[in-house]
Amino acid sequence: MNTISTVNQTIDSTQISVQKMETAAKNVDKALHADGNAPRLIDLMNINPQTGVSIPYQLPPEIVDHFSHVQCHCMMGLFTEISRAWLTVDSDIYIWTYEENTDLAYFDGINETILCVGLVKPKPGVFHAFIKHLLVLSTAVDIIVLGVTFTEGPTGAMDEIQLIPDPVFTIPTDGSIVSTIAGTAEGRLFFGTKEGCLYEISYQAETGWFGKRCKKINLSTSTFSFLIPSFLNAALSEEDPIVQISVDNSRHILYTLTEKGSIEVCDLGEKGNSFSRITKVSQASLVHQAMNTVKTLDSQNFRPIISISAVEAYESGNINLVGCRKQEYAHVRLPPGYSANVTVRPRAVHISNYRDRNLVLISTVNEKDVLWCISSDLFPFSPTLMEAYNTISLDGPALAIAEVKHEIPLFGSTMEELPPMVVRQHLEPPHKYVVLTSQGVQIFIKLRPVDLFKQILQESHGHDTDALKAFFMILKEEQGCATSIILASLESAENMEIAEYATRAFFMFGGEPKLAKMTPANMFSPSGTSMFSPNIVSTPAPRFQQNMFPPQSPNISQTLLPDQAPFDFPSPFTFSAKHNGLYLFLGRCLRPIWNRWCVERICIDAKSITNNSSLTCEDCVYILHGLTALHNFLTRNTQLSAITTSTNHQSSTFNNTSMNMTRANVTLQDAQLEERQSLDALKVFVRICCQIIGLWRILCEHQFHSLIGALPENQQQMLQNTPFKELFLYRQDMCSILITTLVNSYLSDNASVDSISSKLREASEILKLTRTVQNLDQKEEMIYSALQLCKSIALNINLAEVCKEFISLKAYKAVAELCFHCGQKIDPDKIAENFYNNEDNIADQEGFNYFQKRMEIYKQVTNVLDCLYMEQNQEISNIRSRIFLNETVSSGATADENRVGVALQEVINDILERPDEIMHVALYEWMVSKNMTNDLIGTGKPSLETYLKRTAAQHPDSKNVMDLLWKYYESNNNHTAAAKILNNLASRRGNTTPLKDRLSYLARAIMCMRSDKFFLRDLEDKLEVAKVQDQILDAVINLQSQIPNAQEAIVALNSELFEISQLYENFAEPFKLLECQLAIIDCAGYTDSALIESILEQILSEEIKKTSGSGNDRMGQVLTKIKHLARQYSQSSQCFPLSYIVYELEIISAKLKGDKYLVPMTLVSLNIPFEKLITIYNNLITISVNDHFWQVEENEFHLSEATAALINCFINTHESYHNVEKRKITSLCQDTVAALLSNLYSKPNSDSLVNQLRGIQAKLSRI
């Protein structure tokens, strides 16, 4: 309810200029059109419309052992859809997970040698729901189909595979030898034979009137083929084995490839449930067609065809199939090696895989297999097909290759042709390929453009390197800026540095708006391809198409329909790349829903029709993630919004660029203002989109169809005819109506009470019935059903009574599962964890309440542990009493003790495996209360350290807790921490620790620190110097094009460890590596202030040279460097002389005409004590009296204005300071303002600043 009211207030209170929103929406349309204008695959092929990271995994030892037992036949392959590899040894098959080398399953129920293996999805409704796949095994005699099921575990839904030993059906081969097996998305099962026939195994749920449950159908023969004798058929037909079947599930087309290179096309019908043979093309015919296109090559280069890949509709609406030949892959484009700039080409290709404009080949070079990855992802807007390629040598002969496919979220029907990867990369994971070799499995990750960009930033440490320039040159600045935003908007701590690097690159290459010629032009027109093209191959266009794409950017608006044209008038401005990149990113976030209807009508039972959301909750989360990231990026980088000082310009009406084109006297300042106004509109539009998508997600979580059904008919009709674009722009009144409807549904909904009561009664009846059941499997199933019912109404049950019922049935893990679920339901935002991990939590009453509620729930778990613990102690006591009475102890009694102990340990392990730190705390407290110290230390969980440290802080005098803490550190090899605690225990005052214990503590501490402390110090010093050497090596590699003898230096730095003085004299100083010089001074502890200030001055000077854009943009880039230095030298006052740095920054700010608040805000964000900052600014004002630079008229009031901005920062954040510190800072600020006013009263032209300072003075007096 709070969330709903917040959204309602936000939307109602936001007064938005419609003209501003329409301008932002128009720019989004331009961005969408620019992305959608990427040439289609059919265009790049020049025909009429008729890798990155490698991860090796060894084979499991059990699999390697089985190779020695091969007697007749052995095969290996991959099932990437279930993340498994397989091996057949004669009549046995073994399946295992190739990434973990675990979960080895096997089947040995066949007497004949296995000749072919396949995995297909079953038809829905034919088998039990737990059968997820069908494993098809073919021998010379039979085809055996096994059911495949999985058990869900901590790693996912496919944690452990199980092969059902009884075949679901067995079919005789009738003498045919199966060569390949394939299935469709609808569950149809096809196989090809060495005799050249295509078969289908038709199966159904039950036996029909006129047929069996399962039968084999020969699809390669006609209806009347039975009239011709079989010997005559064999004599007249030529044997041509089918070697591959490829299925296009989007168009329902099946392709077959034969050993002699013939390709047959079969239609599976509109719904994929029929079959008809369309055509068959021989290899000779295919070669003839290829020779007509490329007449300069010998025909042998086009044969044989070794594989085919169906091109689905989402990739191309016109191209249906890609074939790969042994010497090359060809459609109308040639492979690497036939371009003028490439001398290496793939030869002897024997395996290939193609999908989504990415081709992976396995070729053999000098008897070694080499993997080729060829991709056009880096050139999405090139008018010709350009591809980057890479080669990787494999560790052995390749046996199979397969891609791990992922569903592409949000992009609607598979019949829609998807935009290029650069447009989808913020949503879609990188392509992942698995290669099975004789030595093991190698997994290759094909990097997306954003992954490549991240790698370049990491290697260059954010510097302006040749690789970074090349990336923006190839991808173009606008696309590069859009890619930068993906990384710049990352907010996690581990990605903070990458985000800063990406932000710096965004502004470095983003440029500034310019004046354009008075001709119609598209701000998003695609640029020509770059001449910089390492490892690039391209297809030359035929002669008749050479002039199809002229050198200048085409007028894309000519290709649009009249109502889609994004340009009404020519613009006198050309927006910057960073402006266009921001709109491109927003367009990509909204592309899947921009023109999608908000509501879709769905017929449920051929009678009733409901209005359902066209977006799911998951879709909303995806979109909201991107929009929120963009909003936060815009908020952090304030220089992207309109400047508050430009009030005269801002007060003017927000005009569209098209309305200003008639002005003949436009200036560069007008262009900058126009861009800032456009960015201001972008910021408002993004905020509104975030609010509306957030509201839509809430509606989807609360029975969307019921809420829409409660609206009047005219409003339902309005929603049905509203796309999301219109909802963002004009239908905010409809959002308010939806919020009101949702609130009313909360107030009037009583139906859920009956549902809860019904489920409670059902769960109670199941638990009572369970007591009478003797069959263990049936009993376990009933307990599971009762548990699921209780979980569905977790917050509405009497937890204590339900748990008692489960304990009485010895369903101990069910109690832990139910309590865990209740804890997550009552505290989904983990407020209790935040309270527990926050040391300063005294005032957090809400967190304390949630912590107490969770601990109250977990008392039921400790009740289970108490029950088992008492039962175990009772068994032990009975055994001891019998021994004392000299009675014989039966093996059954010992077994009972072991059984209870095992049950107790299983419950403890089950609790520890759950990701619930508060439940762990409850367990630890229980174990401490039972003196189970060894078992407690043995858990080794990170949450145990948090618990022990927190308990030690709460009870500093408790020796038992401190004993547990040092034992924990010792068992986890943290000997230093253990030694410190032992030393504190030995040195503690008081009579609670006897002398013998103190001696024992000291002896244990010495054992923990075995190494000599001086040697330890030497190692630490050497490590620090080695880190500096590594920093120098990275700098030399990044700047090798600018450094003479760079290769010699790289070799030397990789050959030995140098002394700190050698690093400075031989590398840092001669190569002018300024930041490395500073790192050396810091490492050596050198205190030459003049030298340090000189280095810092040069660093700032070099950084200014690299900057571009407006004064604020340039200043922002300089301050980014200062932030980097501040993090690196936060503990070193020598290498980060704050007074000097502040003085230099203010001089730079004055020279660049930057806003006065930029430097103070940055310094405050570095967590520098405010008193120190205000003191430094006071000193600077005093010093500036004798500095000629500050006496110049335009700089005279700069320091005073900056000081005022600094004090304003304190006023805006004064609530975060405690009272004593706040009073002290307030007094200091008041003195500073008084001194400034005293100085300004006597100076002319200071009235505006005096008034500002008086306002600050008034605010300070109210704190």
What does this structure look like?
With 1263 residues, the chain is α+β, with helices and mostly antiparallel strands. 49% of the residues lie in helices and 15% in strands. The strands form nine sheets. Strands 6, 7, 8, 9 and 10 form a five-stranded antiparallel sheet that branches. It has a five-stranded antiparallel sheet with strand order 21-22-23-24-29, with no helix packed on it. It is globular and about 110 Å long. 34% of the residues are buried. It comes from Molorchus minor. This is Nuclear pore complex protein Nup155. It is found in: Nucleus. Belongs to the non-repetitive/WGA-negative nucleoporin family. Residues 57-441 form the Nucleoporin Nup133/Nup155-like N-terminal domain.
Rg on CA atoms, Å: 36 Å
> What are the segments in which pLDDT stays under 50 over at least 5 consecutive residues?
1-16, 45-50, 328-332, 519-534, 538-569, 642-663, 750-754, 887-893
Category from helices, strands and their pairing: alpha+beta
Number of E-type strands: 32
- First-to-last CA distance: 35 Å
Mean pLDDT: 78
Please report which band the strand proportion falls in: under 5%, 5-15%, 15-25%, 25-35%, 35-45% or over 45%.
Answer: 5-15%
**Oligomer category:** single chain
The number of distinct helices, counting runs of at least 4 residues, comes to 46
Helix percent reads 40-55%
Shape: globular
Largest sheet: 5 strands, antiparallel
